[in-house]
Write a structure and sequence with these properties.
Shape: globular
Largest sheet: 2 strands, antiparallel
Bound molecules: benzoyl coenzyme A
Distance between the termini: 39 Å
Strand content: 5-15%
Number of strands: 4
Order of helices and strands: HEEHHHHHHHHEEHHH
């Protein structure tokens, strides 16, 4: 296993000290990154001690250490999973050929584009979450937010390393661009739609960590199959960190649901207005937030029918998540889709499996999303209420792909534009809903205490108690 060298300015396991040119280029980028972090990273507590984990090994067992760190002093490093010298390309037309250790000329611009798109999301999410520290429901949650933020920063480093190490001058320019585009910026927005949506409250943050980070999981799994070996190894290690981000979303939503049902039981009522009056977030509002963030995340998979996706697969650049679990790796079959028929109805269409790669991934993602919904519904059921949360249809409120701008209800039935305009008020958060949710987000910065609208966590981080002072305020 390649050891991580922590004595260097940039911790790494890529033998950076033996590549002076690359080391200098990255050391040149480092202060720009820190300036960006200062300007657009967490707005508060930026110089407080936070109980953070830092990657210190790429070993599956014990890869991280925990300790008090001030975020600007976090050791953002470059870590790739260990190399398998015999690795071959596992899918597509180049199957069985040795994985590439350098970028094949004919795939250079495509690979660069994929890496830039992936890299762009990482700082975007930090920007989106910048203000949340001002309204954290507990020190435990505040710490989790910051953990997610520093690790997204590290994932940016991972992509910047690839750009600098393998794409020469244009790679360096793209690395600069990753700090120049900003979430929601009118002139230079982030590349993918969801990453320009504001995240102004913690319910949105948990939804984002559950649904949007889960897109990250699937995209990283697909890139971890890449025939371009340094990209595959980079993504393999990023996935190790990603699991905690989804845990934050999953348990966060679960705790909001739990608290809402507690309030409903205290009130002996499931009236959403009464839940709100008691300072809780009603289940109907949670459903609306889910409708918003889930539908937004579905767009991140791209079009149902995509020749881009087909050529990524054919050329061995991007596989299917967990490609090894498939019993064939050429995807020469057919895939049946339902698409709008152009007359307000639906028709089925058979397309080549390779063209349907985005849809194959989206379908796997939706199945994975269902697991959390089942867990949250168990909480509601156990509390004795009939309400059930449900994912909206994959056709609902899409802005990318076959269903883009086709009005449907949350169940996916095509409806008239007027019916959509009227219904959307009750399907996704209105400005009033957002104002209400923001109104309960009063910060709680006392160890062991938690805001009224969310239940406390079941356990602390890294076996520490729940009432540990996770951020020294
Ligand atoms: N918004 O052929 P199509 C994460 C563009 S999240 C705006 O369907 P393709 C994270 C598309 O780029 C994971 N534009 O697309 C989570 C293309 O443009 P060009 C991020 C969009 O190429 C939380 C055009 O439409 N990683 O890590 O098959 C916190 C034609 O589309 C959108 C990746 O996404 C959109 N939603 O697939 C932190 C992996 N969708 O090239 C981090 C890398 C599509 O014609 N990216 N377009 O100018 C990819 O694999 C692919 O680019 C996509 C799109 C899956 C995104």
């Amino acid at each position: 296993m390649a050891a991580i060298n922590y004595d260097e300015k940039i911790p790494n396991n890529v033998d950076l000290s033996n590549n002076r040119t690359l080391q200098r280029a990255l050391e040149h980028w480092q202060p720009r990154f820190l300036d960006w972090w200062k300007d657009l990273g967490p707005a508060v507590f930026s110089n407080n001690d936070v109980y953070l984990r830092t990657a210190t090994s790429v070993d599956r067992e014990g890869w991280a250490t925990f300790g008090m760190v001030k975020m600007p002093e976090y050791r953002w490093g470059i870590f790739l999973a260990d190399q398998d010298a015999n690795r071959t390309i596992g899918f597509g037309d180049n199957i069985g050929q040795p994985a590439w250790q350098v970028v094949p000329g004919e795939h250079r611009s495509t690979l660069r584009r994929l890496i830039v798109t992936q890299g762009d999301t990482e700082p975007a999410s930090v920007e989106q979450q910048r203000a949340l520290g001002q309204s954290a429901p507990s020190l435990y949650d505040l710490r989790n937010l910051f953990q997610v933020n520093v690790e997204e920063g590290r994932h940016l480093w991972a992509m910047v390393y690839l750009l600098h190490a393998y794409f020469g001058r244009d790679g360096r320019e793209e690395a600069e661009g990753l700090l120049e585009r900003h979430s929601g910026d009118a002139d230079k927005p982030r590349i993918l739609s969801t990453f320009n949506e504001p995240i102004n409250d913690w319910l949105s943050f948990y939804m984002f960590a559950y649904f949007t980070d889960r897109d990250g999981k699937f995209q990283l799994k697909a890139l971890a199959e890449s025939g371009f070996d340094p990209l595959a190894r980079t993504c393999q290690f990023m996935l190790t960190e990603e699991a905690h981000h989804m845990f934050v979303g999953d348990t966060g939503i679960g705790r909001v649901v739990k608290r809402s049902t507690e309030i409903m039981n205290e009130l002996k009522s499931d009236d959403p207005q009464k839940v709100r009056a008691a300072g809780g977030i009603d289940l109907q509002t949670i459903q609306k937030y889910m409708n918003f963030w889930f539908s937004s995340a579905l767009d991140l998979f791209g079009s149902e029918i995509s020749s881009n996706a087909a050529s990524y697969f054919a050329n061995g650049l991007k596989g299917r998540p967990d490609e090894g679990l498939y019993d064939e790796h050429e995807a020469n079959g057919e895939y049946t889709l339902t698409v709008p028929d152009g007359n307000g109805g639906v028709k089925t269409e058979s397309i080549s499996m390779r063209n349907a790669m985005n849809e194959v991934m989206r379908a796997a993602y939706i199945r994975d999303c269902e697991n959390g919904v089942k867990r949250w519904n168990k909480i509601i059921e156990k509390a004795g209420f009939d309400f059930r949360l449900a994912l909206p249809s994959a056709r609902f409120r899409r802005t990318v792909g076959a269903w883009a701008n086709v009005p449907t209800d949350p169940a996916g039935n095509p409806i008239a534009p007027e019916a959509f305009a009227a219904g959307i008020q009750s399907w996704i958060p209105t400005p009033d809903d957002q104002t209400f949710v923001a109104s309960v987000m009063n910060p709680v910065y006392e160890s062991g205490k938690v805001a009224n609208w969310i239940a406390p966590p079941d356990r602390g981080i890294n076996n520490m108690p729940v009432d540990y002072e996770y951020v020294r305020v």
